[in-house]
Write a structure and sequence with these properties.
Strand content: under 5%
Shape: globular
Number of domains: 1
Number of helices: 6
Keywords: Membrane, Transmembrane, Transmembrane helix
């Protein structure tokens, strides 16, 4: 556990957008989906949300996951130029996520 904590601290010390992009691209998502600990954490999180009836937390978590996949599939790897055909889907996806979150978290809260 101490080794994992040291890795997290080391990553936070080196934090920048290039490092985050490289890390997201290096993650083997298929292996993550087949990891039992991942599913235990997901089921525990969903159970907590249903128990507390914290559906706004679920919206924020789903938006975060959608944003990570948006980053992964639309932005080019570091060092490559950002073209307009990559920028437009990224901007549209970000605006869509922003609109959904503003609607459900701000407008419907009143």
């Amino acid at each position: 556990m101490n080794d994992t904590w040291q890795k997290v601290l080391g990553f936070l010390k080196e934090y920048n957008m290039t490092k985050v992009g490289e890390t997201l691209r290096s993650v083997d998502w298929n292996a993550v989906l087949h990891e039992p600990l991942f599913w235990v954490a997901v089921i525990a999180f969903l159970g907590w949300i249903l128990w507390k009836k914290a559906l706004r937390t679920l919206l924020v978590a789903c938006s975060l996951v959608a944003f990570v996949f948006l980053l992964h599939y639309t932005l080019p790897p570091s060092g490559e130029a950002l073209t307009l055909d990559k920028l437009l889907p990224f901007a549209g996806g970000c605006l869509g996520l922003l609109a959904v979150n503003v609607y459900f978290l701000i407008i419907r809260s009143g």
